[in-house]
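Saturday, quiet lab. Running sequence design on the structure tokens for the scaffold JK sent over.
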């Protein structure tokens, strides 16, 4: 699907997670489906390093996906070979005046490193 609002955007892989059952302790077990979504606008937001009792870097991204994309807080986005977890509920917006829609704003986080 081509979304004219972002003609020079980037294609990303959306990994939708869903519950497939439960383990012997009652914990959810998950399965995944993947789809290519776009074009999307991708914007790095933050990068922080934690060095107290650990050596860890977390990087935030905002991905603007085409309106109507099915994405939730359970999902992840693969950008340039790195898997970013969706953080919070994606934002959608429809103009109350014209009915025009905006891309879905998805906040994502990648955490790398060790923890103690």
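Result came back. Writing it out in full:
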């Amino acid at each position: 699907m081509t979304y004219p609002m972002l003609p020079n955007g980037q294609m990303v892989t959306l990994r939708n997670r869903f519950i497939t059952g439960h383990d012997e302790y009652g914990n959810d077990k998950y399965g995944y489906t993947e789809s290519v979504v776009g074009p999307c606008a991708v914007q790095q937001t933050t990068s922080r390093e934690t060095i107290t009792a650990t050596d860890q870097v977390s990087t935030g991204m905002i991905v603007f996906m085409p309106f109507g994309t099915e994405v939730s807080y359970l999902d992840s986005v693969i950008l340039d070979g790195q898997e970013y977890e969706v953080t919070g509920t994606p934002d959608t917006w429809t103009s109350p005046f014209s009915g025009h829609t905006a891309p879905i704003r998805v906040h994502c986080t990648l955490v790398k490193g060790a923890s103690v």
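Notes for JK: Residues 4 and 99 are 17 Å apart (CA to CA). The mean pLDDT is 89. Ask whether to fix the surface positions before the next round.
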